[in-house]
TrEMBL record:
Transmembrane segments: none annotated. SUPFAM superfamilies: Xylose isomerase-like. Pfam families: AP_endonuc_2. This is Xylose isomerase-like TIM barrel domain-containing protein. Residues 26-231 form the Xylose isomerase-like TIM barrel domain.
Amino acid sequence: MSYSISTYTLFTLPIEAAVEALILKGWKSIEIMGEGRSHGRLLLDMDRTQLEKIARLGKDNGVSFGFHLPIVGFNPAKVDEETEHIWEKCLFIAEMLEVEYVLFHLGSNPSVSDGLESAANFSKKMLRELPEKTKLVVENVPYAKKAVGTSIDELNKVIEMIDNPRAGIMLDTGHCYMNEQARFLGECTKAFPHLYGLHINDNHGVSDEHLQIGEGTIPFGPLLFALEDRSVKYVFETNTVERAENSMNLVKINNWGKPDVENSIK
């Protein structure tokens, strides 16, 4: 397993400042959140020089990046001109930052089946245009009207339609628990065949609180125990850096059998 942090932990900061702050904290893997008008959406208006500065900052400090694509206006499940325009900008960002993966929500469509087909077709286009080393990762989302990708079954269908080893699933623990509280562990295991990583955050099953492990009621122990020997990325997507650090260190201290003190954030 490997450990990463989302810039969502510093959502009030402009994206460059957030990246700098997380690097100073010692993080070597950072998922850049491309949402928020005063945060990640700023990336979409950056020129080559500005993006090169962030890329150099990562390289100079041995940091790798993932890229969570924007949510508002980006709708692979029902592709429109705005979706195409946002993707064009995001492709340039992904290339400039040499990201390990791009992550996105499938979007919305009145027809789930049509939405899954549209998202799969657009994903194939994305994979053709992305550098060969870059993975494509889809994330489960909370239930909402016309939302596509609320269940792991839907994500698995998309991955199977894409039919490319570079495509995988980012399992968001908070979203999954909100949707399937009583069947949480069973729902999570459905993602295992195509699992790339986890967005780790806790809640009480009602809203997307982005808490640290133990502040909510998600049963992390059995899930992480089942994953302890798998090569997956743990992305701590909490609402503060402190909560992310506490969650990671709790994973390592409890470790479900295997300590990893060396890589703990000091």
